[in-house]
Amino acid sequence: MTLEELFEDHHAGLFRFVSRMTGDADFAKDIVQETFLTVAGRASSKGSPSKAELYQLARNLTRSGLRKRSRRLGLLRTRSHHVPRAAPEPSPEIGAERAEARAAVRVALAELSEKERTIVLMREEGFRHREIADAVGTTTGSVGTMLARALDKLEARLCDIAREEP
Amino acid sequence: MSSVGHDASGTPDPGLLLRHLDGDLDVATADALEAHLDGCARCRERLAALEARNGRVRRLIRSADFEPPPEGAWGDVRARLSRGQPGPRSRRVRRLLVAAGLAAVLGTAVVAAPPLRAWLVDRWGQGVGGREDPAPPAGEEEPGRADLTFRPPGPTLEIALQNLQAGGVLTLRFTEGASATVSVSGGGTERLSVGRDGLNVRNAGTAVASYDVTLPSSIERAWVRIGEVDPIRVTRDETGPTPLTVDLERGVVVRNGGLRDEPGMDDGDRTG
Questions:
Q1: Would you call A146 an interface residue with chain B, using a CB distance cutoff of 8 Å?
Q2: How do residues A96-126 score in pLDDT, each as one tens digit?
Q3: pTM > 0.90
Q4: Mean per-residue pLDDT over chain A, rounded
Q5: Which residue of B has its CA nearest to A74?
Q6: What is the pLDDT at residue A154?
Q7: Taken in order B122, B128, B129, B132, is the CA torsion positive or negative?
Q8: Which of A36, A72, A112, B141 could form a disulfide with A116 if both were Cys (CB 3.0 to 4.6 A apart)?
Q9: Which residues of chain B have pLDDT under 70?
Q10: Residue B120: predicted pLDDT
């Protein structure tokens, strides 16, 4: 498979994955590019990476990118209920209420641990529990348990946010 | 009755049920679970509830996207490959450094203007440009503030420590005062600052400083974030007037005034 074919197959999912992980579309665009540039820089004898390897690479680049950004600016990742990161202004087509709902989801996702968020969002990209377990370094059973707990947290947090909104 | 659907304590195992929902069980386990479900009303109810929650949350996650992937992304990758240009992170770093430099210059000018500074101090307390001591000579490490007072703008506050420490505790208490206060003891190089989201503490992993934080009457809930550890959620209703203490070596609550959520201690893989 060529790099372009690999890109066509996976760039949209990777962009969606990193956007949801970070709430930052610009950052996600950079990470996706960095992911494929890294793949391009690897020895051709390695062959094309699997989907899981691509996502694992993107996840690692996301984590290192966020750490560097946080270190250099002296700030921590923004996960405040009041200021979701990179929440653009709603367009007339979207509507304010829908934009608020989206912001609430982003905040709730951001308040999971990085591992929980990875598990939830890799599942959304169609990965099996075994693949997710390999990617995050845990067991398949733990993935199910952490996923169930993450769903509980997400629903509870989204209910909290809905109650807090004026 | 088969116990395949239950965890060690005998309650329905949500992790196993979720794997079943996702079609992720091997045939033998799936058959055994189906047989168990036929005879276990608790597990059937748990599965139905899990399925409903799963559906709601997944629909919400999918509804939260409104930015499609950028157009022409492959062209950008191909162009950079052919030109051998620096990666996006290098450009981003340069932009951030330039922006940070400009912000530092502007921020110094703003907080130096007396009327504006007075307004900022009134708004945020001493945490904004409130340094009364003269700046240290160039080249010296600026010591962390020993105490800080500020007024959070909303009902939620984030307290973010950069790292777990070698020792020390964070003590948190809800008061009826008007301002939040932070006192540091046993520290040396910790840097405290107040940002848009709350209190930020730049600390080293070798530090043993302790932090005493009082929250004003306006705060209903706070989040304590320490490095990569799961955040600790604290609410006024649950905690009451009794101080809550967080062990900064492990990132866990060691004394609590009431019911609270523990961070994810039972997943056994926080280092991942």
A1: yes
A2: 666 777 788 888 998 999 999 999 999 999 9
A3: no
A4: 82
A5: B202
A6: 92
A7: positive
A8: A112
A9: 1-3, 7-8, 66, 84-101, 107-146, 196-197, 255-272
A10: 59
Give just the sign of the alpha carbon dihedral B262, B173, B162, B120.
positive
Question: Is a pLDDT exceeding 60 seen at residue A90?
Answer: no
Mutate to test the interface with B, among A2, A71, A73, A75 (most CBs of B within 10 A): A75
Contact B185, B209 (CB under 8 A): yes
Contact at CB, A7 and B77, closer than 8 angstroms: yes
Q: Which of B64, B89, B268 sits opposite A65 (nearest CB)?
A: B89
Torsion sign (Cα): A137, B62, B70, A125: positive
CB contact under 8 A, B87 and A94: no
Question: What was the pLDDT predicted at B79?
Answer: 84
Judged by CB atoms closer than 8 Å, whether chains meet at A19 and B223 is answered as no
Say if residue A73's pLDDT is above 90.
Answer: no
Q: Which of A30, A156, A24, A152 is nearest to A83 (CA)?
A: A24
The tokens of B39 are what? 């005879």
| Structure tokens belonging to residue B8 | 């060690």
Residue A60, chain B, CB below 8 Å: the answer is no
Q: What residues in B contact A76, CB-CB < 8 Å?
A: 160, 162, 197, 200, 225
B213 in helix, strand or coil? strand
pLDDT single digits (tens) A136-166: 989 988 999 999 999 999 998 887 776 665 5
Smallest Cα distance from B233 to chain A, Å:
10
Contact B66, A94 (CB under 8 A): yes
Name the nearest CA neighbour of B167 among B231, B224, B211.
B211
CB contact under 8 A, A16 and B65: yes
What pLDDT does B94 receive?
60
Contact A76 B225 (CB under 8 A): yes
What lies within 8 Å, CB to CB, of A61 at 6+ separation is: A31, A34, A35, A38
Strands B210-215 and B180-185, by their bridges, are: antiparallel
**pLDDT value for B112:** 60
Amino acid at A164: E
| B88 interfacial to chain A (CB closer than 8 Å) | yes
Q: Which two tokens stand for residue B51?
A: 């399925």
Region for residue B165 given its phi and psi (left: phi exceeds 0; alpha: psi -120 to 50; beta: otherwise) = beta
Q: Does B133 touch chain A (CB under 8 A)?
A: no
Backbone angles phi, psi at B252, to 5 degrees: -130, 160
- B-chain residue closest to A138, CA distance: B269
Question: Considering only residues 67 to 86 of chain B, which have any Cβ-Cβ distance to chain A shorter than 8 Å?
Answer: 67-70, 73-74, 76-78, 80-81
